[in-house]
TrEMBL record:
Transmembrane segments: none annotated. Its cofactor is Fe cation. This is Rieske 2Fe-2S domain-containing protein. Keywords: 2Fe-2S, Iron, Iron-sulfur, Metal-binding, Oxidoreductase. The keyword Metal-binding applies. The keyword Metal-binding applies. It holds the Pfam family KshA_C. Residues 18-129 form the Rieske domain. The lineage of its organism: Bacteria, Pseudomonadati, Pseudomonadota, Gammaproteobacteria, Cellvibrionales. It comes from the Bacteria.
Length: 357
């Protein structure tokens, strides 16, 4: 598998941005240990409902704060106190900022050292963390969709696709990849456009889908480097697809998939829910066509791109902003911002753009 150094993306090994790290419901059973960006974390929902993400290991003797389900304080539901968490080994208590603020068997002042705490939010049924190798605060928000909160839209459950041995660059490449839509997905595009606006990367495309027997139009966009949302319409289907990916270790990403479907009436019934499930399965089957190729390909460190494939290069430049200090982001924006068409394919019609936005 390819390493970030080989892709030559910038100064960082892992990108800056908002990333999914768990499904919201995974915290219902208490603290959870998660591993991303080559590091271990303890994730939990405090008693007030506040989300907390801390470096996993206790300063005292290195115990993972969230990987015991058998310690007495865990089984007796005494591990969380308010929004603080106690280490399962000797009970040192950490507040949401990662500061030790109570040691059960010691009256003196707590050691001054602290473990790191990270920005974390819940949106779209997912827990998202802000990851910045330089430790900076978020410079944009994690995405939300009005439709997620609208009862006429049926929210799917996350498909957990597990850890995949691929560099995330190759997942991002898909955004510029107009000419795999026919051979891989059976829906060759007629019109195609990419647009870059700062931390956002858009793709507008449409074409006749062989299997769906309908004209498919999609508006797909990344908010930062790991969160893809896609508005998709064909026939009577009107939905959103989510593909979220987060680096786990070098050359390894974790991937989730979800769907939102618009029901025909305001109070979706059982049949509507069954249809939404089918739509999600269909979208997942299409994504699986990509996944199977990615899981078995050799890294495309250099793409032998034809002149009609210049957006691959632009997409990679856009992606580099997240592997470099934020002060440099503007330089990458200046190189790619704007709309970019591909020779040989139509531009989206005004109608296609209006329908999607
Ligand atoms: S190892 Fe955490 S309290 Fe001792
Ligand atoms: Fe694809």
């Amino acid at each position: 598998m390819a390493l970030v150094e080989e892709f030559d993306l910038g100064e960082y090994i892992f990108p800056r941005g908002w990333f999914m790290i768990a499904e919201a419901s995974e915290l219902d059973d208490g603290p959870k240990g998660v591993r991303f960006f080559g590091k271990d974390f303890a994730l939990y929902r405090g008693e007030s409902g506040r989300l907390v993400l801390l470096d996993a290991y206790c300063l005292h003797m290195g115990t993972h704060l969230a990987k015991s389900n058998s310690a007495s304080i865990v089984t007796n539901h005494e591990q969380l106190e308010g929004d603080s968490i106690r280490c399962p080994y000797h009970g040192w208590r950490y507040n949401p900022e990662g500061q030790v603020d109570d040691i059960p068997y010691f009256d003196g002042p707590c050691p001054k050292a602290r473990i790191k705490s990270y920005p974390v939010v819940e949106t779209l049924g997912a827990i998202m963390m802000w990851h910045d190798p330089a430790g900076g605060e978020p410079d944009y928000q994690a995405p939300d969709l009005k439709a997620w909160h609208d009862s006429q839209w049926i929210n799917g459950c996350y498909d957990h696709l597990g850890d995949i041995a691929i560099h995330p660059q190759e997942i991002i490449d898909n955004m510029a990849d107009a000419h795999h839509l026919g051979p891989t997905h059976g829906a060759p595009c007629e019109y195609f456009e990419n647009e870059y606006i700062g931390h956002k990367y858009y793709q507008r495309q449409g074409g006749y889908h062989r299997m769906y027997r309908a004209y498919l139009t999609t508006l797909t966009w990344y908010t930062g480097p790991g969160l893809l949302l896609s508005r998709q319409r064909f026939g009577d289907n009107n939905g959103y697809e989510f593909i979220f990916h987060t680096p786990v270790d070098k050359g390894m990403v974790k991937v989730w998939h979800n769907n939102l479907s618009l029901a025909p009436g305001v109070n979706p019934g059982e049949q509507d829910i069954a249809n939404a499930k089918m739509a999600q399965e269909g979208a997942l089957a299409a994504f699986a066509q990509d996944l199977q190729i990615w899981a078995n390909k050799k890294p495309a460190l250099q793409i032998m791109a034809l002149p009609v494939e210049r957006n691959f290069r632009l997409g990679r430049i856009w992606y580099q902003q997240f592997y470099n200090p934020i002060e440099k982001a503007k330089e990458f924006h200046a190189r790619v911002n704007g709309k970019h068409h591909l020779k040989g394919l139509a531009k989206p019609s005004a109608l296609a753009v209006e329908l999607q936005e």
